[in-house]
């Protein structure tokens, strides 16, 4: 990560009218939330098809809920890290700023980020597994332990399901459209802490790509797509890169002031 490249990214951020950030599990790693792939990743030791799919939930809802409540308890003990805080600060200061996150931990919100789209939903939400007509699609539910396991829908008595989007499920169309709008024709796209393997989130990078857009990957282990999809790769942890970019933005503001 050389100074000239960082300076160029900071220059483009300063001049941008529309900046979009796509984040993944690597952003929350410094907060103590486990990633999914790579060293220590959840999918190395847990089976996604059992724990994060409609079929898995149908087979064993109790197992899915146990796993969800464990993760909820872990995340409840985690706080936003400096990278979340800096993105929250930028969301209030930079024009046309949007964060599209694949994370379900709610840490962007907790940091006070103004414009966040939670592509994969939230671990702090639940929904009726039968989508009964009385209930909203999802609602907030910070409960860490239920009296009955698995818990049931307060509206109809069917099973409750965790609010996250599971493998094989479609993202709600309104959410996907808003994310696509944020990605398209942005001046800078920062891709932070994601393997960019899961669709349709990864497609948003391709959507953003244009001759006038700078696509920047921030990841100590750049994704397989780095070589052909990213214009710039800053191969270091998110906190380190965002702190250095923030310092460059602040220095430029002082010069202008
Ligand atoms: P992954 O676990 O696939 O990837 C985490 C990425 O973060 C890797 O590329 C790491 O190199 C990188 N990383 C680790 N520490 C970092 C740090 N300090 N700073 C920056 N990057 C770091 O997570 P995602 O790509 O987010 O889906 O996974 C995408 C989706 O797959 C998740 O949303 C989840 C999962 O199955 C659902 O829940 C539907």
Widest beta sheet: strand line-up: 3-2-1-7-8-9
Determine the strand fraction and express it as a percent band: 5-15%
Spans with pLDDT under 50 lasting ≥5 residues? none
Strand count, sense and barrel status of the largest sheet are: 6 strands, parallel
CATH architecture verdict of the largest domain: 3-Layer(aba) Sandwich
CATH topology title of the largest domain: Rossmann fold
Structural class: alpha/beta
Bound molecules: 2'-O-acetyl adenosine-5-diphosphoribose
What would your notes on this structure say?
- The protein is elongated and about 60 Å long.
- The protein folds into two domains: about 160 residues, Rossmann fold (3-Layer(aba) Sandwich), CATH 3.40.50; about 80 residues, 2-Layer Sandwich (SIR2/SIRT2 'Small Domain'), CATH 3.30.1600.
- Helix 1 packs across helix 12 and helix 7 runs parallel beside helix 12.
- The protein is α/β, with parallel strands linked by helices and about 260 residues long.
- The model has no long low-confidence stretch (mean pLDDT about 95).
- The chain is about 40% helix and about 15% strand.
- The two termini are about 30 Å apart.
- The protein has a six-stranded parallel beta sheet with strand order 3-2-1-7-8-9, sandwiched between helices. Strands 5-4-6 form a three-stranded antiparallel beta sheet.
- The structure holds 2'-O-acetyl adenosine-5-diphosphoribose.
- 2'-O-acetyl adenosine-5-diphosphoribose binds next to helix 2.
């Amino acid at each position: 990560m050389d100074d000239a490249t960082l300076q160029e990214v900071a220059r483009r951020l300063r001049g941008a009218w529309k900046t979009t950030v796509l984040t993944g599990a690597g952003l929350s790693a410094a907060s103590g939330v486990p990633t999914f792939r790579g060293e220590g990743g959840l999918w190395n030791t847990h089976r996604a098809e059992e724990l994060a799919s409609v079929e898995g939930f149908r087979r064993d809802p109790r197992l899915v809920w146990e796993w969800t409540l464990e993760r909820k308890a872990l995340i409840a003990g985690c706080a936003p890290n400096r990278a979340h805080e800096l993105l929250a600060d930028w969301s209030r200061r930079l024009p046309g700023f949007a964060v599209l996150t694949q994370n379900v931990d709610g840490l962007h919100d907790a940091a006070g980020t103004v414009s966040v789209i939670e592509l994969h939903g939230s671990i702090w939400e639940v929904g009726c597994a039968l989508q009964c007509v009385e209930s909203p699609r999802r609602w907030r539910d910070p409960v860490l332990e239920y009296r009955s396991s698995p818990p049931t829908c307060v509206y109809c008595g069917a099973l409750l399901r965790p609010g996250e989007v599971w493998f094989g499920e479609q993202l709600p169309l309104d959410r996907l459209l808003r994310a696509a709008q944020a990605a398209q024709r942005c001046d800078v796209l920062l891709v932070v802490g994601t393997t960019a393997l899961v669709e349709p989130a990864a497609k948003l990078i391709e959507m953003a790509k244009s001759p006038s857009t700078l696509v920047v990957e921030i990841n100590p282990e750049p994704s397989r797509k780095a070589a052909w999809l990213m214009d710039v790769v800053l191969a270091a942890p998110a906190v380190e890169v965002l702190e250095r970019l923030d310092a460059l933005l602040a220095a430029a503001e002082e010069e202008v002031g």
